[in-house]
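hey so u asked for the seq, here:
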Amino acid sequence: MNYEFDLQMWMDRFPLTERYGHLSGEPIITSPNDLCNREWLRQLLEDKYTWGAPVPVDIFVMSRGEPENRAATKIGGLPYRPAGTAWPKFKSGAPMALIAQFNFTNSVDIVGKQRGDVLLAFGGEDEDGLINVAHFEWHRLGLTDLIRSEQMPDDCLKILPCYGNRCRVMSYPDAKRKFEGMHPVVDGKEILSPQFVATLNGTQIGRAPYYVQASDSRLPGRPLCCISSVQPAMHGPYPWVNVAEPHCKPDDWDFGSLDGYLMIGDAGSIYISIDRFGRLHSGLSCF
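ran it, structure tokens below
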């Protein structure tokens, strides 16, 4: 099972407020306020779209560090994997890194039953220096002899770990704007980045991820899950679900302190699809 994120409780903590002098749809969902902001904006913009049919997705709001539950959805770090299994390697012999793992036990109703309960996605940097997936593994729940940190290869790409707190929400991939111009206006206020409101840009399981580029939807088969870059909120409380203190002081922008967390090119995503034969496919996209 996954850790859970109580959206209503967090929305009570994070009412819709102006940040930096405006309202805006934040590009990547990592922190609690990112998802709360998106849900408040949807309510505010209810009459500005023809929303179309809702598609359920499980979005993951991130906690910092390694989870106690080894099988939880996570990015980087220690995988849910048998200790005695050979570690995946590139053709060069270099070991791959765990990029992400997904626990599907809470999501069978939206993506169907899969070959396993937990999907592991391994890979590393390609010739352009972009992180991409090169190897998949399925595992069932109930494994006991799991790999330990001291058994991990020390010469693979290091990705600092964070783990997901699942929240079932709706995406609206067929939403159509009813407003003119680039930005809707509500009560005299222009709302920036409305493209991030209808579908959610974040690590998720489901059939309707936010596509960075129009061509991202052309992977074979059907969308299964999506790995997004990790970019916790710089200011304000709870940059992570389990960390209350703000990441930076109000006038500070310490992006260097996030070095080591997953960054896919320019805040991009890795999309994973599954075809009718059960084969997995992946594609990377950046802004």
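The chain has three helices and 16 strands. The two ends are 32 Å apart (CA to CA).
lmk if thats what u needed
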